[in-house]
Design goal:
Rossmann fold; globular; single chain; 3-stranded antiparallel β-sheet; 3 helices; binds guanosine-5'-monophosphate; 21% helix; alpha/beta
Length: 185
């Protein structure tokens, strides 16, 4: 335990994995026009570290989306709060997401971005929860598979706090359902 958190993935373990993902993405996208699309706010820390480990010229842009309330969770209705500034035309787009839970957010984003004619579209998620998906999304790069539990740190929040932790941890009194009442981060 560190304070009120239990460390699930240490800073060292996270950094090693981000370097590994960066090397793999560098090899896969050599000679291509790469655009990293970060999903605010949870993916901010990950995308910055990941970008610094990709040895290619690349662009970074951000989107913010929100899910409607808990009662409509299964509908997968997602609203764009902040859209991309960059055009996707002829670009190789990599969505960078913090964590995949039901898959509804990424499924919506994927369909939405595919309609903008990118040269290619792939997904990189730091964490993937081991659970049945409400929407099956293809994950091209995954950092870690984790159990279905509420995690914080390294960009992930609980009630907007804990994003600044350098590791991924567990908070005992976290309220997972609150994410459905707030912008999806
Ligand atoms: P999905 O649409 O896959 O159900 O939800 C994805 C989003 O829910 C993530 O981008 C993240 O904002 C939030 N989320 C899902 N699980 C967790 C978690 O364990 N911790 C935190 N902090 N956010 C989560």
């Amino acid at each position: 335990m560190a304070g009120e958190y239990e460390v699930l993935l240490s800073e060292e373990v996270l950094q090693r994995k981000v370097q590994e993902l960066g090397r793999q993405i560098t090899a896969d996208y050599r000679g291509k026009r790469l655009l990293l699309v970060g999903v605010l706010k949870g993916a901010v820390v990950f995308i910055v570290d990941l970008a610094r480990n990709i040895d290619l010229p690349l662009e970074i842009d951000f989107m913010a989306v929100s899910s409607y309330g808990a009662s409509t969770e299964t509908s997968g209705v997602v609203r764009i709060i902040k859209d991309l500034e960059a055009s996707l035309q002829d670009k190789d787009v990599l969505i960078v997401e913090d964590i995949v839970d039901t898959g509804l957010t990424l499924d919506y984003l994927r369909q939405n971005l595919l309609s903008r004619s990118p040269a290619s579209l792939r997904i990189c998620a730091l964490l993937n929860k081991r659970k049945e998906r409400k929407a099956p999304v293809p994950l091209d790069y995954v950092g870690f598979e984790i159990e279905d539990q509420w995690v914080v740190g390294y960009g992930l929040d609980s009630g907007e706090l804990h994003r600044n932790l350098p590791y991924i941890g567990l908070v005992k009194d976290a309220q997972p359902l609150s994410k459905r009442e707030e912008p999806c981060e």
